[in-house]
Amino acid sequence: MDSDYAIIGGGVVGLSVAWGLLKRGLRVTVLDGDDGSFRASRGNFGLVWVQSKGMNQPRYAQWSQSSAAAWADFSDELTDATGHAVGLEQKGGYDLHFSEESLEATVAKYETLKARLGGDYPYEVLGHNALRKEEPEIGPKVVGAILHHQDGHANPLKLLRALSDDVRRLGGIILNGKHVVDVKKRDLFHVQCADGSEIRARKTILSAGLGAMELGPKLGFKAPIRPQRGQVLITEKMPKIINRPSLIARQVDEGGIQIGATNEEVGLDDRVTQPGLSGLAAEAIAAYPILGRAQLVRSWGALRILSPDGLPIYQESPEMPGAYLVTCHSGITLAAAHARFLPDWLEGTAAAPDLEVFSEARFS
Amino acid sequence: MRSADLIIVGAGPAGMAAAACAAGKGLSVLLLDEQPRAGGQIYRDVARAWPKRGGLLGKDYAAGLPLVQALDHPGITHITGATVWQIEDGPLVTFTVNGAAQQAQGKRLLIATGALERPMPLPGWTLPGVMTAGAGQILLKQSGMVSDRAVLVGCGPLLYLIGAQMVRAGTPPLALVETQGRGDLLAAMRHVGGALRGWRYMLKGLGMLAELRRAGVARHVAATDIEIAGANRAESVRFRAAGQQHEIGCDTVLLHHGVVPNTQAARSIDIPHEWDSRQRAFVPQRDAWGRSARADVFIAGDGAGIGGAKAAAIAGELAALAIAHDLGALAQGDRDLEARQLRWRLSAELAARPFIDRAYPPFAPALAPADKTIICRCEEVTAGDIRRYAAMGCLGPNQAKAFGRAGMGPCQGRYCGLSVTEILSAAHGQAPDRTGYYRIRPPLKPVTLAELAAMADTPDAAE
Amino acid sequence: MKHAFHRLDAPADLVRVTFRGQVVDLPAGENLAAALLAAGVTVFRNTPVSGAPRAPFCMMGACYDCLVEIDGTTRQACMLEVSEGMVIEPAHGKGADNALG
């Protein structure tokens, strides 16, 4: 049977969109890669994050805010359906600072953004002592933090599993081990796989992460994305040490302390390096000295999917109408928006969000 | 930073033999090993234990003595208590000694990390008191400790050996519960033509069995439905054999159904592996010298495929010869001449392997455990969980790991990796090579953040 | 209960350590996991996942079941040797005094 949508890419982005479309009664087939594919969904840091996003593009800040605001309900619905929580906690998050100068400079930027957002940017600045009341393990080198109340975190792997589970439960088809080699448009889209199979659908969405670098141009997209490596560490399971997440470290729902992340332009190399690990460890200890005693159990390198300006790309193909590129590097933060709001844009309803600033027109 | 012509990871038979051979050719050798004394697991603590307990441990154990003694060579730097946790291009090896990290740069690297016991997930196998047979042997060799009320469960020569050693120590095991059937032995005899060495192993096994029998140890064969019962520790072993249900009360259960290569280090640097269907395990691809797909990295010993201690020592020497030749310390003709003799001995050693593998196949229910049985000891993931993730589209262990945490704990998949591969392969009807294995990343063993941070370029990244 | 293991040789050079706050005399230089087993310790820790009891399984540094906490750091008992004055606690787990919050 033909689908309404063939979604190329079964990570959090593709599955979030699939889930949202299924909720509207549409028929969806998701083509997922294999065990060794680059999978940002398996390697990301798990923040549901608003602060620092869209400093130069308020619409991106808003889009992140709207997703963060939709997350709780999205999470509840997934949990009810699958019986498994996805570890969502939204009680604020920190941007930790080691110098007064950097703290002040960031606050100045936040104030500018806040004004452009009409005042909807709820954050406060905590000095060292105030921060220490919230985070007893914070180290003396941390001069203060920006606590943004719209920030939080989730368990990205539980989210991936819940989406995978619920997409199937809702009648979606997920085909695993598929490597899409080409897409043709006739009366329908014909998505062709390396194994010779072909999926036909009324519309198609390219949400294949870095796979869009190769496939994008075949569907008429510029897809000017690149990989950026982020190395991430995780410790053994620990007693409670960290209350709220930050960009430096967070304590995951299973107890481990996740520490991240590097930003490295190294192409498709997803290895971890000793300098990478050491630098991250040093920063985490500077923030929370007690972590020096913790055992690092695992580390990994994951490849972010970055556009030139770091913003998501939402674009319908000018050459193949009905084909959409959906890509971003904040698939967890934006999962709720992708599930709740993107279907309106894909279906062209009156409720469609204005995503013009995220089109490929900005890359001309 | 240290440097050496050859860095060897692991001071078991392969690593020790390679070190002595390479040093003998004039190479500088850095030998890194986790244990406080050389020997690996098979010759664990041999220099101290042999004089005290040689009689009960048996003369095969004594073969480790000359290997340990040969490490006393000016060309060999042996660092004990060294835990290697990262290997990078170079080869650059990072390791911990006494809580502080060090690095070493070699011209060649030999991975000689040996074997692990094949995981034997059974109901109750995580209870205190359940150990590997190898653990029982380590306690005996290193510490002179014997369990008073032990049941041996599984199959293979090592199980007979530990049983016989316990008899000699004056504390026989309560029972030997074997999983192989008589058909396995017959098949081994029928199908392995001309494996004379196999007979020798069998005779050795029969000798040890006779020791156990004389000591009055109950023996059960072709046991099925094995489980370990107990509330907070192992209290009994339950099983069916000869059409009857049995339950044997005990304090200690020693499990064994073969050993498998420890491939963590090789996998961490993306050396290709392939499934060995006879050994039912992955082995790293390497040439006849032990050279891997990375030209400067060699693998020798049981970590490259199970062959036993003697074969491991020979393979270590072969690798050392190739490395000495690589580095200009040995002419090709001399290398090949020395290798000829070694290869002849190696093939004689390995001739018995097909027989042993046939006669003592892994316990099938532990390769396909019941749904409720824990397979990942660290994260307490069951076989049923993995089957559920297979049904949710996980084709390989890495997606299954993401879905359910198997392999994410401190042991990093050492005791669940093969189980996960086998379960997923069965669920999808695909070969283990296609299913694949966990992507192994540093740290190969957990390391404290303080130790990592101490290696940062700037001592404090925040300043 | 009678200890599960016995020693073939009388231990020499006992030194004083504590485990779970109890004073224990163990042979200096002995493998810590072995020494605790010989001293009658059956449960080394409870897991952080379910709180299940655990004790040494592989004795060769591979399984991470014999985890203990020394000076605030989780260590493998089977990879340590006994030294005078060691303060040994079970590695943090669920359901123990030092449980996960």
Structure write-up:
The complex is a heterotrimer of chains A (364), B (463) and C (101). Chain A is α+β, with helices and mostly antiparallel strands and 364 residues long. Chain A has 3 domains: 3-80 and 156-224 and 309-363, FAD/NAD(P)-binding domain (3-Layer(bba) Sandwich), CATH 3.50.50; 93-149, no CATH class; 226-306, D-Amino Acid Oxidase, subunit A, domain 2 (D-Amino Acid Oxidase, Chain A, domain 2, 2-Layer Sandwich). Chain A has 10 helices and 17 strands. In chain A, the strands form 4 sheets. In chain A, strands 1, 2, 8, 9, 10, 11, 16 and 17 form an 8-stranded mixed sheet that branches. Chain A has a 4-stranded antiparallel sheet with strand order 13-14-12-15. Chain A has a 3-stranded antiparallel sheet with strand order 4-6-5. In chain A, helix 1 (12-23) runs parallel beside helix 6 (156-169). The model of chain A has no long low-confidence stretch (mean pLDDT 97). Chain B has 3 domains: 2-116 and 260-330, FAD/NAD(P)-binding domain, CATH 3.50.50; 119-257, 3-Layer(bba) Sandwich (FAD/NAD(P)-binding domain); 368-435, BFD-like [2Fe-2S]-binding domain (Arc Repressor Mutant, subunit A, Orthogonal Bundle). Chain B contains 18 helices and 23 strands. In chain B, strand 13 and strand 14 (236-241) form a beta hairpin. Chain C is mostly beta strands. Chain C has a single domain (14-90), classed as Ubiquitin-like (UB roll), CATH 3.10.20. Helix content of chain C is 7%, strand content 31%. Chain C contains 1 helix and 8 strands, in the order βββαβββββ. Chain C has one helix at residues 32-38; strands spanning 5-7, 14-19, 22-27, 45-46, 53-54, 67-70, 73-76, 87-90. In chain C, a hairpin with a 6-residue loop joins strand 4 and strand 5. The chains are: A alpha+beta (364), B alpha/beta (463), C mainly beta (101). Chains in contact: A-B, A-C, B-C. Chains A and B meet through helix 6, strand 12, helix 8 and strand 15 of A and helix 15, strand 23 and helix 18 of B. Strand 15 of chain A pairs antiparallel with strand 23 of chain B, so a sheet runs across the interface.
